[in-house]
Specification:
It contains 13 helices and no strands. With 316 residues, it is mainly α. The protein has one domain. Helix 5 packs across helix 7. It is globular and about 45 Å long. The protein starts with a helix and ends with a helix.
């Protein structure tokens, strides 16, 4: 059991750290191609590889949706269309500061998921959880404003912030999806959700290109980001997706979600190594978001322990 927990933890750490590394890599790629084509060029190979793995490992039967076709499309669209298109679009709109903010928004997904549960199930969070939510958003504001809150009144910062928030919502909803397919393997859910979501993202980008809203990259431009794409496809794309979903299965969501903090931490380390100056406001904001996630997780564990104790006393 302990070995399984250790392995699950390593899986979650690797996945989160690789996601933190992908934002600095994306910044380089955006010098040549748009974030929209960056997303689909990255995920089409990932989807193809996952589908091939699913076919050879689990066979044709695993491609049947068992009546879950719409749900697969919905969760796949949230994770591979809304999240991936919006997180890189928002990052690109903000330029240099968007690298760290995009990573923080990914880490913010657990907080966003609480708000989603509140909205959908009408289940109001505990007062302490509400405090953590407010604290997390204050942390985000510190990063996006860099201490100058007047920038929130300008569309050049406010609009990208909304885009990044929508991306966090997409990732939070996709994370819920893994619990909706009981009896499915991690590979099956990952492959089919990525297939549905990537097809949707490709259709969206194609339509935008037809109407001249997104520029189609040349072969030379794609060639210029070949190393970026190799990293994005195989590390944060393919390997991290499988390891994260498996890690969540082993650790359970309440434990695994703590490791998402490694994403902004990794981003900060890489940015510092690149010579990018991390301001006190950016560092403080990232720390506040991470602490809000940790403290809320501890609080949830305490509530679960009390509930379990009460249930035992009643049973006795």
């Amino acid at each position: 059991m302990k070995n399984n927990m250790f392995i699950g933890s390593l899986m979650a750490i690797f996945a989160s750290a690789s996601w933190g590394a992908m934002f600095p890599v994306a910044e380089h790629a955006f010098q040549y191609i748009s974030p929209f084509y960056f997303t689909i060029i990255r995920y089409i190979p990932v989807a193809v590889i996952l589908v091939m793995l699913l076919y050879f490992i689990e066979g044709k039967r695993s491609f049947k949706t068992d009546g879950n076709g719409f749900r697969l499309w919905f969760f796949g669209t949230m994770g591979f269309t809304v999240y991936n298109l919006f997180i890189f679009w928002g990052q690109n709109l903000l330029g240099g500061p968007g690298v760290l903010l995009a990573s923080i928004m990914e880490a913010l997904a657990p907080i966003v998921s609480i708000l989603i549960v509140w909205f959908v199930k009408k289940s109001r969070p505990h007062a302490f959880t509400m405090f953590c939510i407010v604290a997390a958003f204050i942390g985000v504001l510190l990063v996006v404003t860099n201490g100058d809150f007047s920038v929130l009144f300008g569309l050049n910062r406010l609009f990208p912030l909304v885009i990044l928030l929508l991306a966090a919502v997409g990732w939070a909803i996709y994370t819920f999806g893994g619990n909706e397919f009981n009896g499915w393997s991690v590979l099956r859910f990952s492959a089919l959700s990525s297939l549905y979501g990537t097809i949707t993202a490709t259709i969206v980008v194609t339509v935008l290109s037809i109407f001249g809203m997104v520029e189609v990259p040349t072969l030379h431009e794609v060639y210029m980001v070949r190393y970026d794409m190799l990293f994005m496809i195989f590390i944060p794309g393919l390997l991290a997706l499988l390891l994260w979903n498996k890690g969540v299965e082993i650790l359970k969501p309440i434990n695994a979600i703590l490791f998402i903090n490694f994403a902004p931490v990794t981003t900060i380390i890489i940015r510092m190594l690149q010579g990018y100056p991390i301001s006190v406001y950016e560092f403080s904001g990232a720390a506040i978001v991470c602490l809000a996630i940790v403290f809320n997780n501890v609080h949830q564990r305490m509530l679960m322990s009390k509930t379990s104790l009460v249930d035992k006393e009643q049973a006795a």
